[in-house]
Amino acid sequence: YDEGADELVFLDITASKEHRQTMAEVVERIADVVFIPLTVGGGLRTVGDMRRMLLSGADKVSVNTAAVQDPDLIRRAADRFGSQCVVVAIDAKRVAGSTPLRWRVHTYGGSVARAIDAVEWAGRAAELGAGEILLTSMDADGHRAGYDVHLTRAVSTSVSIPVIASGGAGSALDLYEALELGKADAVLAASIFHYRETSIRDTKRFLQSRNVAVRL
């Protein structure tokens, strides 16, 4: 927040796999000290779970596994809270040898492969009322060698709602390429900032130098 982030995403990535709820008290503590939009996800299974996070201070809620299991959850949440509150997270992994390229949806923190095409699922999520797609490339995540711009572009050009690219950021240039080549509307990065390899402000200055509109 102090470094100039535009938004903060808090994902309890093992909550669904461990069949537990996201810790509301942690969300409350974050919301008390952070005054930018806060998205919270992980282990949210019902509209009631989402309401609990919003009451704890979240501005948006993110769902992955529960939405795949019950797609109508997206519609119910959008009807209750508004599409602007509902983020559908998609963990996608490239199908080996696919031509043209295809990606498969994974759930439970990436541990369970689903027979669902990631691009098609993004389109359906948008139709059901999702306000944003949080798109993570499982192939790129953790390698810090750049986002999967092919995946990001495939999804971004198939839906009319904002797509946030996630997974693979290792430099400011990687963020730029996800925006420019991947056509993402926003980019999420974690480890490059956690380990102070660069700062959010320096990254924004770099993007501005490449004619990307950013808030400094």
What does this molecule look like?
It contains nine helices and nine strands. Strands 1, 2, 3, 4, 5, 6, 7, 8 and 9 form a nine-stranded mixed sheet that branches. 35% of the residues lie in helices and 20% in strands. With 216 residues, it is of the alpha/beta class. The chain has a domain of 147 residues: Alpha-Beta Barrel (TIM Barrel), CATH 3.20.20.
Mean pLDDT figure = 95
Please name the CATH architecture of one domain: Alpha-Beta Barrel
Treating each run of at least 4 consecutive H or I residues as one helix, how many helices? 9
Low-confidence stretches: none
DSSP strand (E) fraction? 15-25%
Name the structural class. Answer: alpha/beta
CATH topology of one domain: TIM Barrel
The portion of residues assigned to helices is 25-40%
Q: Under the CATH scheme, which class of one domain?
A: Alpha Beta
Largest sheet: 9 strands, mixed
Output the CATH homologous superfamily of one domain. Answer: Aldolase class I
So what's the overall shape?
globular
Count all strands and give the number.
Answer: 9
Give the helices and strands as they follow along the chain: EHEHEHHEEEHEHEHEHH
Give the N-to-C terminal Cα separation: 12 Å
The radius of gyration is 16 Å
Jot down its keywords:
single chain; 216 residues; alpha/beta; TIM Barrel; 20% strand; globular
Quick synopsis:
With 216 residues, the protein is of the alpha/beta class. Helix content is 35%, strand content 20%. The longest helix has 11 residues, at 118-128.
Element layout with pairings:
Elements: E1 8-11, H1 24-33, E2 38-41, H2 47-55, E3 60-63, H3 65-69, H4 72-81, E4 86-94, E5 103-107, E6 112-117, H5 118-128, E7 132-137, H6 149-156, E8 163-166, H7 172-180, E9 186-187, H8 191-194, H9 200-209
Parallel strand pairs: 1-2, 2-3, 3-4, 4-7, 7-8, 8-9
Antiparallel strand pairs: 4-5, 5-6
Helix pairs in contact: 7-9
